[in-house]
Inverse folding.
């Protein structure tokens, strides 16, 4: 019998699976760059063929990173309602405004379904899955430290225009780092309040006020704990003389090797191929 | 043991089953607790203590094996979990974190109110719970929870669970992080609940003085297994087990074990302070008395 309280099980953000595969060993800067290139590529290519290819490639990343595909699928699962709602809305309303080209399959009142709008629906659903797969592989194969270092390096040029790159990277690190911590904290809180007779999510869905009130015994202590932790963190950082404005060095230096450059080039080639596919 | 209110049989538990992070926390654990008994569970972090006690009020359900609490079988899917939780009050580690109401009285009344009791009944229960943990109902019920001291908060949280009038009280490191004074006070309260209010108490502790003070029986856990079980006398007298699983011993026992190693004829099972004094006196030359 599965426990209804095992929250961490469903949280894949910030989870790192150290399998030591080639994907894991890529230079984080290059990995991140390749990731951004691929995401952009997926965002802008809108044909069936290119998305089928992209989906295949994204799926192939899992065995390459030696990560069970289950992880990617468990990321897709919570997104299914969004994908469905989006698909329905697009199917109903896109035929008129955007996807007016192509053949018209169905027309009734304000609902128009054309081959273009249908393609848009299918393609955006596929894109969703591709993006989730890609980001799952990225976060599962890269530790948060590597990820933020990579991001910091890539954003460095923005320093010239006064963007606080380091502070930004730090914010991201802290946010990501504390996701599992707060999940555990919340799990504990749910258990503690359940022990006192609280019930969560059992009321009828239309009694929104009651259901929201049911969450207070968890939300309020959780905020409390979060603020306490934030204070502790500040103290710990200040005790180590942390100064955000100073020039910082890292103990790990990254050197992009041939395979890292190869990864970036490959992703560029893939994007080029995706755009080249006509249908 | 015929009248066992808690029965744990052959219990296994695996966390994050079917993921690469799978981790088995319990391996065929057996435990029985008689009505009115006070049982301590000791063992290192990660030995499975917390997982075990979460089975006692149905936060975890047995994956394999059996847990029966006063006739309620947790393996049954249709079990009335709320009835079980009314019977078993579980106090988590640092329970003061779970306080969420603005006023002390409201927080303590949360559980009973959820049970749908009348206001009168709820007030009575809150009053009883507060008095029993040593908070004056009249003075404290309208105090703001955030302005309390650590020890008071702990008591409020404990009262919040006691207000459910459980028959079994399960505590996870009840005194961790308290100052010595509050610690002693809390231990006395727990002892009172066990002895005078007839609550069955199961508690997890790292503090062996506490265990020596409260427990009738001790379960020693290591790596998800119960490795030793018995009266404090039996467990503390067994230096091999204590060393093997790196479990501390009460200072009284430690002195006796040391004396014994030096070749003095003392009985290391005499863990209560008065007994220990007698043992030490018995080996002193007569002139010393």
């Amino acid at each position: 019998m599965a426990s209804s309280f095992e929250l961490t099980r469903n949280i894949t953000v910030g989870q790192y699976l150290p399998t030591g595969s080639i994907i894991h060993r890529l230079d984080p800067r290059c990995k991140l760059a390749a990731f951004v290139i691929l995401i952009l590529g997926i965002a802008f290519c809108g044909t069936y063929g290119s998305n089928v290819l992209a989906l295949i490639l994204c799926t192939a990343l899992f065995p390459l990173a030696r990560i069970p595909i289950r992880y990617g699928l468990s990321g897709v699962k919570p997104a299914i309602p969004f994908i469905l709602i989006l698909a329905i809305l697009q199917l109903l309303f896109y035929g008129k405004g955007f996807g007016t080209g192509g053949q018209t399959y169905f027309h009734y009142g304000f609902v128009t379904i054309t081959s273009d709008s249908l393609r848009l629906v299918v393609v955006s659903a596929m894109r969703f899955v591709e993006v989730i797969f890609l980001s799952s592989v990225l976060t599962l194969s890269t530790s948060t430290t590597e990820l933020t270092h990579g991001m910091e390096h890539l954003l460095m040029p923005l320093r010239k225009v006064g963007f606080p790159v380091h502070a930004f990277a730090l914010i991201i690190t802290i946010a990501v780092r504390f996701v599992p911590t707060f999940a555990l904290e919340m799990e504990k809180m749910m258990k503690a309040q359940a022990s006192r007779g609280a019930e969560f999510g059992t009321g009828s869905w239309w009694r929104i006020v009651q259901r929201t009130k049911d969450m207070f015994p968890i939300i309020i202590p959780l905020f409390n704990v979060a603020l306490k932790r934030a204070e502790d963190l500040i103290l710990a950082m200040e005790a180590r003389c942390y100064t955000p404005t100073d020039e910082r060095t890292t103990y790990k230096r990254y050197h992009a090797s041939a395979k890292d450059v190869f990864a970036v080039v490959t992703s560029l080639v893939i994007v080029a191929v995706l755009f080249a596919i006509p249908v | 043991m015929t009248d066992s209110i808690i029965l744990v049989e052959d219990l296994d538990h695996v966390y994050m089953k079917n993921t690469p992070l799978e981790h088995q926390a319990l391996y065929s654990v057996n435990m029985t607790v008689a009505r009115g008994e006070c049982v301590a569970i000791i063992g290192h972090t990660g030995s499975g203590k917390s997982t075990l006690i979460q089975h006692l009020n149905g936060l975890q359900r047995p994956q394999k094996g059996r847990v029966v609490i006063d006739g309620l079988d947790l393996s049954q899917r249709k079990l009335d979990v709320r009835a079980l939780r009314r019977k078993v009050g579980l106090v988590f580690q640092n329970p003061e974190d779970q306080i969420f109401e603005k006023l002390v009285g409201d927080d303590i009344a949360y559980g009973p109110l959820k049970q749908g009791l009348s206001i009168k009944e709820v007030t009575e229960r809150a009053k009883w719970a507060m008095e029993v943990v040593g908070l004056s109902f009249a003075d404290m019920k309208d105090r703001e929870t955030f302005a309390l001291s650590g020890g008071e908060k702990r008591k409020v949280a404990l009262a919040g669970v006691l207000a459910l009038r459980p028959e079994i009280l399960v505590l996870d490191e009840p005194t961790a992080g308290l100052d010595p004074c509050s610690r002693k006070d809390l231990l006395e309260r727990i002892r009172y609940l066990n002895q005078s209010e007839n609550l069955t108490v199961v508690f997890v502790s790292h503090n062996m003085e506490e265990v020596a003070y409260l427990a009738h029986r001790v379960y020693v856990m290591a790596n998800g297994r119960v490795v030793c079980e018995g009266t404090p006398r039996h467990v503390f007298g067994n230096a091999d087990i204590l060393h093997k699983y790196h479990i501390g011993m009460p200072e009284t026992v430690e002195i006796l074990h040391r004396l014994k190693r030096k070749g003095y004829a003392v009985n290391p099972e005499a863990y209560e302070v008065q007994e220990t004094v007698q043992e030490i006196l018995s080996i002193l030359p007569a002139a010393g008395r």
Remarks:
- The longest helix of chain B spans residues 180-195.
- Residues 250-289 of chain B form one domain.
